[in-house]
Amino acid sequence: MSCGRPTGAGRRLPARIVVATHNQGKMREIRELLATHGVTAIGAAELKLKEPDETGLAFRDNAALKAASAARASGEPALADDSGLCVEALGGAPGIFSARWANGAKDFKGAMGRIEQELRACGAPQPWRAHFVCALALVWPDGRTDIFEGRVDGDLVFPPRGTAGFGYDPLFRPDGCERTFGEMSAEEKHGIPPDGSRALSHRARAFQEFARAVF
User: Which CATH architecture describes the domain 2-214?
Assistant: First the structure.
């Protein structure tokens, strides 16, 4: 869904946009999504932009502050993603702390092991329900901002399966699917159907709403 007043609506994106992430997995997915609309994405890491501290209390807050920082530093429109895995039996954790559970996104294997350990320790009944959330923030150099969110629900699978994707993908099986995100190709996971029907992944669903506003 689109959140807040669509301040970016009516403005078309230029041929190049800054993507405010240093996460190569996210960068790859967002670059592929933008490429379908003829937009070139350049990452914050390529521009040597600093990563701001993520002090927000919600995905949308962190997405907005990252995009705003990149837009100010580059003088170009910036798109930022903040996303994570929310496990129902753990009160929504790791949520906005998903990367921190993975030691700054460097040890997702350890983070997935921690999730399983905490679920078993609290005696949560199976199936273990969870959802991925993605907030996309588009910030223009003049500060105008639009935020879009996507969500996908599913179950957690242990042991994790698959080597595709990144992050927590190998343990998440979206509703209606037999395979985890880690067992799906990029096209299966975030490809947007040409007929306009709903995309599968949280990031692709957020991107669908974003695309409707700016393309």
Answer: Alpha-Beta Complex (3.90)
